[in-house]
Each structure stands twice: as structure tokens, then as C-alpha cells.
Amino acid sequence: MCLPILPILGAVAGIGSAGAAIAGFSTAATVLSGVAAGAGLVGQLVGASNQADALQAQGLQQQQAANAQATQLDLERQQKQATAQASLDQAEVKAGKLLRQGGVDLSQQPADYAQMGVRVGAGSGSPEDAQIELQRRILEDAANAKLEGVRIRTSYDITGQQLGVAAADARQTGVNAVTNANAQADATALTGSVGALTSATNWITANGSNLFPKAAPIVNHAVTVP
Fold first, then answer.
1. Is 48 exposed, middle or buried (0-12, 13-18, 19+ CB in 10 A)?
2. Cα dihedral 152, 155, 156, 157 in deg (nearest 10)
3. Is the pTM of this model over 0.70?
4. What's the CA gap between 123 and 40, in Å, rounded?
5. Structure letter (DSSP) for residue 221
6. Mean pLDDT in order along the chain per 10 residues (226 residues)
7. How far is CA 213 from CA 20, 37, 136, 200, in A?
8. Residue partners of 137: CB distance under 8 A and separation at least 6
9. Contact at 8 Å (CB) between 167 and 70?
10. Half-sphere exposure of 9 (CA within 13 A, CB side)
11. How far apart are CA 33 and CA 11, in angstroms?
């Protein structure tokens, strides 16, 4: 039962029809009609209750499905976040390797020039410029590696945020499904109760003359003595 008014109205309708059947002893047809009417009212109330329960169950099923979808979306969001952090970490590692290798190359370059008989130092011209250029490229490669990691992480973060919004929407859809189902169930139960009460009232109205038949007129057979 979805509303307190359902059993109340059901009781009123049942009492009305039962009372009508009991009071209608004037004819057997009225008694049988009252019993049949009462049975019909019970069936009407039970049918309305079952339909209301079915609507509520359907709403709960829809909510469960929506929550399952939201849970899956949350898992995907967490995976995206983990991948985003891993991408950034890998970029940091790559940048560190580039800087370390660049340091080795920078330290080795003067020795390479020395073996070629080229003096490297202030005012030495081209060899010094080459070392500056090497250092610039090393720093640029390391910075680009970090930027690539940030770009990848940002992409995964955006996707993760979108998944989070979708999960929240799915959960809200489930809540809405239950709310709507409960409202429909309440309306169904109320309609069934009102219908049963109306049927009871109509039966009593239609059989009112049989419920309380008029008493036969009293005839005075007394003999008047002059």
C-alpha cells in the first residue's frame, strides 16, 4: 500500500458493502448482491495495490541500473586519473634522463674539441657557441618532455571530469526514477481506493430500497360493538 488512505477507504468500502449485505435480509438476492459487491471491491483494492507495488519495484530496478552505470563510470574516471598521473610521472622521468644525458654530453664536448685541437673558452668562437647551443637543446628537450606529460595529463583529467559528471547524472536519473515511480504508485493506490468507495456507495444507493424495506401498513381488524 502506498498511501495510508488506501486501507482506510478500503475498510469503509468493505464495511459499507458488508453492512449492506447483512442488512438486506429482506431478499436473498440483495444478500448475494452485497457479497458479490464486497468481493468485487476487495479485488479492486488488491489490484490497485499490486499495480502500485509493481510501479515501485520498477522504479527501484531503474535506480539500481542507473547506480550500476554510475559505478562503472566512476571506475573509468579513476582509471583515467591514474593514467594521467602516470603520464606526468613518466614525463618527469624522461625529462630527468634528458637532463642527465645532456650534462654528460656538455661535459664531454670540451674533451672532444680538445682531441680535435680546438680550444674552447671565452672568445674562442664557434666551439663555445656550439656548447651553448647544445645546452639550449638539452633544456628545450627536457622542457618539451615535461610539457607533453602535462598535455597528456590534462587530456585525461578532462575526460575524468566528464566521466564524473556523467556518473552524477546517472545517479540523479535513478533518484528521479524512484521519485516518479512512487508518485505514480501513490496515484494508482488512491485512484483504486476512491473507485472502490464509489462502487460501494453506488451499490448502497441502488439497493437502498431493499436494505430497509418499508413495513406493511397495520390494518385494524377490531370489531366495533354498538
1. buried
2. 120
3. no
4. 112
5. -
6. 47 49 49 59 76 87 91 90 87 88 78 56 60 84 89 88 91 91 86 76 67 52 50
7. 13, 20, 115, 19
8. 102
9. yes
10. 25
11. 18
